[in-house]
Write a structure and sequence with these properties.
With 327 residues, this protein is α/β, with parallel strands linked by helices. The chain has a single domain, classed as Alpha/Beta hydrolase fold, catalytic domain (Rossmann fold, 3-Layer(aba) Sandwich). The chain is built from 14 helices and 10 strands. The chain has an 8-stranded mixed beta sheet, with helices on both faces. Strands 5-6 form a two-stranded antiparallel ribbon. α4 packs across α10. The protein is globular, with a radius of gyration of 19 Å. The termini are far apart.
Length: 327
C-alpha cells in the first residue's frame, strides 16, 4: 500500500540542505554539552544517527514530520557538536583505549531525554551504529515507547563475512596497531566510509558539514575509532556481542510497532540480515533507493513513509507497568 501511495505524483519539496542552515542547540548532560535540534510539536519523535554522521543526517526528513510531532535529533556524545568526554576505558578484545562503552552512551542518551523532558509516547528513528544505543535504551524503557523506525540497524552480532567488504577493511584497520593513525590522524578512514556508504555525490556544503562534524585530526575523531572498535564482529568484543544479542532478542520478541526502511541495494542490512530483519513482529516494511546513509539518498521517500506509518500508530500506555515502577 505504501509504495502505491508514494508513487503518486507529488509536488517536489525544497530540501532543507538547500535552504536555511541546520541550526543546533546545546544542553548540559552529565557535565557535558550535547548538541541537538528540537522543532515541531506533538508526540516526541527522536532521531538517532549512526557512527559516521550526526543529527545533520536527518535534516531533510524532519521538516515533513514537524507539523505533527516534536522532532528531536541528537548528536550522540562524542560526535558532531557534542562534547568529547575525557573519560576512557579499554576495549577487552583489542586492548585499545576507547572513550565510552555502550552503557555510557545509553546513560548519556537517557539523561539527555530527561534534560529535554521528552516524556512518554516516544517514537525512535534509529540508524546504523546508533541503533544499538537506541535499542538498548528502548529495551529498558519499553513502557515509554510508541514505536521504532529502523534503517540499516545492527540488531544482531554479525560474522565477518556478513559485513560489507569496505566496512570489514575499516574495522580491521581500526583494530590494528596503526588504528589510531588510520582513523584519527589521517582522512583515509573517513573518506573510505563516505565513498562506500552513499552512492550519490554529495554537494560541497554537505561534504563540508560531514567533515566539520567529524572533527579535526586527533582526539576529536576518537568517536569513530570507538565505533569501529565497539561493533561486534565474530563475537568480539564479547561484551558488545552479548549486548547486541540481548537487544536483538528483545527486538524480535516485543510487539512495539516497527517500521523497517530497507535500502536498495543496502549496505549492512542485506542477505540473511535482511531476511531476519523482515520477520520482526508488528512491523511494516518499505524499501527506498540507497546504500547505508539512506536519508542522504532518499530523504523524501523516508519522510513520506515515516509520516504515513506514524498516522496509524496508537499512543503508548498512559500508565507505567508495575514491574517498571518496582525496578
Amino acid at each position: 500500500m505504501f509504495a502505491r501511495i508514494f508513487n503518486r505524483k507529488r509536488r517536489p519539496k525544497k530540501a532543507a540542505s538547500e535552504g536555511e542552515p541546520f541550526k543546533k542547540e546545546t544542553v548540559e548532560v552529565l557535565g557535558q554539552s550535547m548538541a541537538f535540534t528540537d522543532t515541531g510539536s506533538g508526540p516526541p519523535l527522536v532521531f538517532i544517527h549512526g557512527g559516521i554522521s550526526s543529527s545533520y543526517l536527518w535534516r531533510d526528513v524532519i521538516p515533513r514530520q514537524a507539523p505533527e510531532a516534536r522532532c528531536v535529533a541528537v548528536d550522540l556524545i562524542g560526535t558532531g557538536g557534542s562534547d568529547r568526554p575525557d573519560a576512557a576505558e579499554t576495549d577487552p578484545a583489542t586492548g585499545k583505549v576507547i572513550p565510552l562503552g555502550w552503557q555510557e552512551h545509553v546513560a548519556y542518551l537517557d539523561a539527555f531525554f530527561d534534560a529535554l523532558d521528552i516524556g512518554n509516547d516516544i517514537t525512535l528513528v534509529l540508524h546504523g551504529w546508533g541503533s544499538i544505543i537506541g535499542l538498548e535504551w528502548a529495551r529498558m524503557n519499553e513502557h515509554r515507547l510508541r514505536g521504532i523506525c529502523h534503517l540499516e540497524a545492527i540488531t544482531r552480532p554479525l560474522a565477518w563475512p556478513e559485513f560489507p567488504e569496505s566496512l570489514r577493511e575499516s574495522i580491521r584497520r581500526a583494530r590494528s596497531p596503526d588504528g589510531r593513525w588510520y582513523v584519527m590522524e589521517s582522512d583515509e578512514c573517513f573518506e573510505h566510509l563516505m565513498d562506500t556508504q552513499v552512492r550519490r555525490s554529495l554537494a560541497p556544503d554537505v561534504q563540508a558539514e560531514y567533515r566539520r562534524a567529524f572533527g579535526h585530526p586527533g582526539e576529536p575523531r576518537r568517536a569513530l575509532l570507538s565505533a569501529l572498535n565497539l561493533i561486534p564482529a565474530n563475537g568480539k568484543p564479547q561484551e558488545s556481542a552479548a549486548l547486541v544479542k540481548a537487544v536483538g532478542t528483545w527486538f524480535k520478541q516485543t510487539d512495539i510497532p516497527k517500521l523497517l526502511v530497507l535500502g536498495r541495494p543496502g549496505y549492512l542490512v542485506t542477505g540473511r540480515t535482511r531476511d531476519l530483519a523482515e520477520r520482526l513482529p508488528n512491523q511494516t516494511v518499505v524499501t527506498v533507493p540507497g546504500a547505508h546513509l539512506l536519508p542522504e539518498e532518499s530523504p523524501d521517500a523516508i519522510a513520506f513513509f515515516l509520516s504515513l506509518w506514524l498516522h496509524h500508530l496508537p499512543s503508548a500506555p498512559a500508565e507505567v507497568p508495575a514491574q517498571e515502577k518496582n525496578r
